[in-house]
Write a structure and sequence with these properties.
By secondary structure, this protein is an alpha/beta fold. It has helices spanning 3-18, 24-40, 45-61, 70-85, 112-125, 142-151, 166-176, 197-210, 227-237, 254-263, 285-292, 298-311, 314-321, 327-339, 343-349, 359-377, 381-385, 392-402, 406-425, 430-437; strands at 100-106, 130-135, 156-158, 184-189, 214-220, 242-246, 267-272, 280-282. It folds into 3 domains: 3-85, Four Helix Bundle (Hemerythrin (Met), subunit A), CATH 1.20.120; 100-285, 3-Layer(aba) Sandwich (Rossmann fold); 298-437, Signal recognition particle, SRP54 subunit, M-domain (434 Repressor (Amino-terminal Domain)), CATH 1.10.260.30. Strands 3-2-4-1-5-6-7-8 form an 8-stranded mixed β-sheet, with helices on both faces. Helix 7 (166-176) packs parallel to helix 8. The radius of gyration is 27 Å and the shape is flat. Residues 98-275 form the AAA+ ATPase domain.
């Protein structure tokens, strides 16, 4: 997806990471690299200069928060500004206890009918009961295509090939599904052009008949920043509550489409990433930018760092950063890491580590963390407070209590000591220390 943008942004980050030091010249160079990357992806010139100006200003003037190096902080700034460019991270929630009506509209050829079947599949897999109304009476074969694709998801499609009155088809379709105990009805409509007055008038009538809970504008990602004008034109006819961008898998203009859609104020809710029926996903600016930069969702790591700062008391922090942490502190950090979720998720979130560690290695690491937690829980209070007490007989007792062999207890003690030394050397940068002690930093 957006391969050119992805590779050029990652090259810009690599330049920062591999540099011997960060100075004004390097930051200005980064800014120019980002400008070039975004302009090549058809992002609006004004937006490009705005975002790079913010990146420059913040990189030069902001002080990195505790635990982040200046390089990491600049990468974080880049991540923040790109995510901001693509809109907010909000999610539409369908109301329970009623039928939610979703109206799909857009220019002819944008892929609405395909999106209707993909969205039906996507929502069905989430546990919603979905029905579809085929109200595209303008394009020959639209209803047949819709039914064929929705059959794969066991989703019922209502349509009437003989009836060319779209608002009436919608009215009849809603009546047909009235007692079917559905959660969501998707309404597929004929493609419009913003200049086609008759079709736009028909859309107004459909909107009046359907009274939708959500109107989704389907936009072809290959048209780039023209998405802005399209979204505005449709919004005047039917209040657009969200946008679906299709064909992002092959588009050199995808960045422009995303940025332009976000600039309309309507949330980009879903993106089509391929031709298969399952190639539709919920759009999250933070996750999307994370993938572009090879970071997964960096927010998970930042949230963890914030929790470590906020929740840890001063005594604990001083103890850790001075290299005097005990086994309780070590256990505390393991607990904090597991709050983020799976270790796979954590590593996917780390800049530079996403996708670099094999699955079988990750499984071993997760198993190791679980073992360590059980072993530490089998220690008494005195041993947790002062691990230097752990002699051969105590190791034997702890091994019996935890259910793990003695060599596993010794492995934990060894890693604890490595971690302790690393914390001292890195002045309390917990995340870096944690990764290094697992042989990955």
């Amino acid at each position: 997806m957006l391969d050119n943008l992805k590779s050029s942004l990652r090259a810009a980050i690599k330049k920062i990471v591999n540099s011997s030091g960060v100075d004004e010249e390097l930051i200005k160079e980064l800014s120019k690299d980002i400008q070039r990357s975004l302009l090549q992806s058809d992002v609006n010139v004004k937006l490009v200069f705005e975002i790079t100006k913010n990146i420059e200003s913040r990189s030069l003037n902001e002080k990195p928060p505790p635990g982040l190096s200046r390089k990491d902080h600049i990468v974080k700034i880049l991540y923040d500004e790109l995510a901001k460019l693509l809109g907010n991270d909000t999610e539409f929630h369908f109301k329970s206890g009623k039928i939610n009506k979703v109206l799909l509209l857009g220019i002819q050829g944008s892929g609405k009918t395909t999106v209707a079947s993909k969205l039906a599949r996507f929502l069905s897999k989430q546990g919603y009961r979905v029905g579809v109304i085929g109200a595209d009476t303008f394009r020959p074969g639209a209803l047949v295509q819709l039914r064929t694709m929705c059959e794969k998801s066991d989703v019922e499609v209502y349509g009437d090939e003989k009836n060319k009155d779209s608002p009436q088809v919608v009215k009849n379709g809603l009546k047909h599904f009235e007692s079917s105990n559905l959660d969501i009805i998707l309404i597929d409509t004929a493609g419009r052009h913003k200049e086609e007055k008759d079709l736009l008038d028909e859309m107004k009538q459909i909107n009046k008949v359907a009274s939708p809970d959500l109107a989704l504008l389907v936009v072809d990602g290959t048209i780039g920043q023209q998405c802005h004008a399209q979204a505005e034109a449709f919004h005047k006819i039917v209040p657009v509550g969200g946008i679906i961008i299709t064909k992002l898998d092959s588009s050199a203009k995808g960045g422009g489409a995303l940025a332009a859609s976000a600039a309309t104020g309507a949330q980009v809710m879903y993106i089509g990433t391929g031709e298969r029926i399952d190639d539709l996903e919920t759009f999250s600016p933070t996750r999307f930018v994370g993938r572009l930069l090879g970071m997964g969702d960096i927010q998970a790591v930042l949230d963890l760092a914030k929790r470590l700062e906020n929740e840890a008391d001063d005594v604990r922090m001083k103890r850790i950063s001075s290299g005097k942490m005990n086994m309780e502190d070590f256990y505390y950090q393991l607990e904090e890491v597991t709050k983020v979720g799976s270790f796979q998720g954590l590593l996917d979130s780390m800049p530079g580590l996403s996708g670099m560690v094999k699955e079988d290695q990750l499984d071993k690491m997760e198993e190791r963390i679980d073992k360590w937690r059980y072993i530490i829980q089998s220690m008494n209070q005195a041993e947790k407070a002062d691990p230097d007490l752990l002699n051969a007989s105590r190791v034997k007792r702890i091994a019996r209590g935890s259910g793990w062999p003695e060599h596993e207890v010794k492995e934990l003690i060894k890693n604890y000591k490595n971690s302790k030394n690393m914390m001292k050397a890195s002045k309390g940068r917990q995340m870096q220390g944690f990764l290094r002690k697992l042989g990955m930093g």
